[in-house]
Amino acid sequence: MFNKKSRILLLGLLVSLLIVGLVACSNGGSGQSDNSGGDKPEFVLKFGHDQASEHAYHQAAVWFAEEVNKRTDGRVKIDVFPNAQLGEESTMLDSLKMGTLDFCISSTSNASSHVPQMGLLSTSYLFNDADHLYKVATDPDIINKFDKLVSEKNLGFKLVTFLPNGLRSLYATREIKGIDDVQGMKVRVMSSPIETKVWAAIGSKPTTVPFNEVYTALQTNLVEGAENTPSSYLTAKHYEVAPYFIETGHEWLMSEVWISNKTWEKLPEDIRKIIMETGAEMARYGLDKQLENDAKAMEELTSKYGVKDIKVDVAPFRERVKPLHEQIAKELGSEDVLARIQELGK
Fold it and tell me: Per mean pLDDT, which range of 11-25, 167-181, 229-243, 263-277 is the poorest?
């Protein structure tokens, strides 16, 4: 019935149809979301941060992504990129503005370069304890205050939640028993006017050194001490050159989770609501994870690496720094925020 040429054409057509069918089945099976139906999500979003996958940032971001996926029945899939894969914090904030990134976490020090009033939150001895920190992080008045400031500046991103973090303490190349031993001591601080003011008030010589150079600075005695959370102290291996950990507990860290305005504008109202509600819960999850990580880090530092954990009287440190609270709040125009923080701490 068919000549040789027709049979060849028919065979070619059947092979083509078979290939198309296989490709279609393959695409349908791979999917992009974790929803049970296997359908592709309506929104695939990117979430970046600059910490390692063991850090509480990553643990909180992954939890947030999974919860949003569940609560939207798979309509939203969020991919999390740790280790500054999408750039340093300042770069990621710029990406939010352009709409090429959907979410990111930033430290308050980086956020305050865009919203100076946020600098108040990095002032030492501002929070009484972890519970006070959490109350501030989830307080609607404070969130709305800063969200309004961000909106007025037209920065291109919106505050989802504050992400309370760990407690920073001093560590040193020599034993420190109290505030007298810190007088004139060269202490590495972050590149922040507030950090410099705090450590100058305490009586040390604050010295700005990039974080990736702190190990060498301690090793060569460029600085005699630095300060950070136990987890960061451990992962950076600073204990090798500064084996004394002094529990000054001077600064509870506060970070921020941001969403791009361009992303926010394209999301329907029901998904926006889920993102904000899940973000508020993320604050508690992230803080609990950080405290858990820091406790494990201290156990490892003392038992495995022989770090000397020194508990000092922090009252003299607090007394030196307390006058800065009013001064910094006035300079930044954040007197109302300071009053609210103090009210929440009563």
Answer: 11-25
Report field, pTM of the whole predicted structure over 0.85: no
Hey, CA dihedral for 63, 158, 143, 72, is it positive or negative?
Answer: negative
Mean pLDDT over 234-262 rounds to 96
Number of C-beta neighbours around residue 157 at 10 A: 29
Paired sense of beta strands 244-260 and 103-107, if any: antiparallel
Residues 6+ apart with CB under 8 A from 2: 10
Q: Residue 39: its pLDDT value, please?
A: 75
* Residue 15 confidence (pLDDT) above 90: no
Q: What pLDDT does residue 192 have? A: 81
Six-digit token string for 146: 């800063």
Q: What is the CATH number of the domain that holds 148?
A: 3.40.190.170
**Statement: residue 337 has pLDDT above 90:** yes
Instruction: Quote the CA–CA distance of 227 and 214 in Å, as a whole number.
Output: 10
Asked, for residue 1, whether it belongs to a domain, the answer is no
Domain count, the chain: 1
pLDDT, residue 112, reads 87
Which residues share a beta bridge with 208?
Answer: 189
Rounded to the nearest 10°, the torsion over CA 100, 102, 107, 112 is: 70
DSSP 178-230: SGGGGTT-EEEE-S-HHHHHHHHHHTSEEEE--GGGHHHHHHTTS-SEEEE-H
Q: Is 50 helix (H, G, I), strand (E, B) or coil?
A: coil
- Nearest 5 degrees, angle CA 320-CA 322-CA 326? 135
Give strand ranges (E) for the chain.
Answer: 43-48, 76-81, 103-107, 157-172, 186-189, 205-208, 225-228, 244-260, 308-310
Q: In which domain, by residue range, is 340 found?
A: 33-344
Find the radius of gyration of the CA atoms of the chain. Answer: 25
